[in-house]
Design goal:
Blueprint (H helix, E strand, L loop, with lengths): L4 H11 L1 H30 E7 L2 E6 L2 H9 L1 H12 L6 E5 L1
Parallel strand pairs: 2-3
Antiparallel strand pairs: 1-2
């Protein structure tokens, strides 16, 4: 039985470090967009998703209050980010303040 080209490319891309980096970049962008959607320009100034390592999304916050606000919406943020990636790329969030 022959596999389609799309199936072959999808299987190869899941193992590719390059594809993983692309998905991480998309997840970080989605997190930053979500932060801006919820808290507007002020939220964009006070918090920024920086990187993903070992399933942990790191968000740098200039305010502990902003970190708490994001923590309240953490489940929604994780769902949005993982929906963008099509997998469970992000398992938890770490805050830097």
């Amino acid at each position: 039985m022959m596999k389609s080209l799309g199936d072959i490319l999808k299987a190869k891309s899941n193992k590719s470090p390059f594809m993983h980096s692309v998905l991480c970049a998309g997840a970080i962008d989605m997190a930053n967009i979500y932060i801006e959607e919820l808290w507007g320009e002020n939220g964009k100034k006070l918090a920024k998703a920086v990187y993903i390592k070992n399933g942990v999304l790191v968000i740098a916050c200039l305010s502990s209050i902003m970190a708490q606000e994001i923590k309240i919406k953490e489940t929604e943020l994780l769902n949005k980010v993982n929906a963008k990636c099509g997998s469970m790329m992000v398992k938890k969030i770490r805050y830097l303040s």
